[in-house]
Each structure stands twice: as structure tokens, then as C-alpha cells.
Description:
Blueprint: H1 8-13, E1 14-16, E2 22-25, H2 38-45, E3 47-49, H3 55-61
Antiparallel strand pairs: 1-2, 2-3
Amino acid sequence: MGKIKTHKASAKRFSLTGSGKVKMSHNNHRHNLGHKTSKRKRDLRKGAILSESFAPTYRLLIQK
């Protein structure tokens, strides 16, 4: 039976925590930062946990 390949673009953007949650970093923090508030930019710096409704899909994509 065939195997599912790792989706490399997703593997670079998402990772798994020890408990199996999908960890990600925020977008919108590369350019056009002048009109964004300091609070918004500060919050975008932090990592985040992907919603549990999306998690199974991304777990499948980034499996080793």
C-alpha cells in the first residue's frame, strides 16, 4: 500500500507539540507594519495553537 508523503510547505510552517497539538506562527508580520498597532504586532510575534477543527488535516500533512 502507498504511503502519504510529508507536505513540505506545511512542514516548514507547522510543527507538533509533545501532546500532539499543531503549533504555528502568525501571518501578517512581514511588511506594511506602519499602520498596525503595537499591540497587534506584539501579539503576532507569539506562536499559536491551531484550532482543533483544522488540526487533524495538518497532522496528516506534516507526519514524519
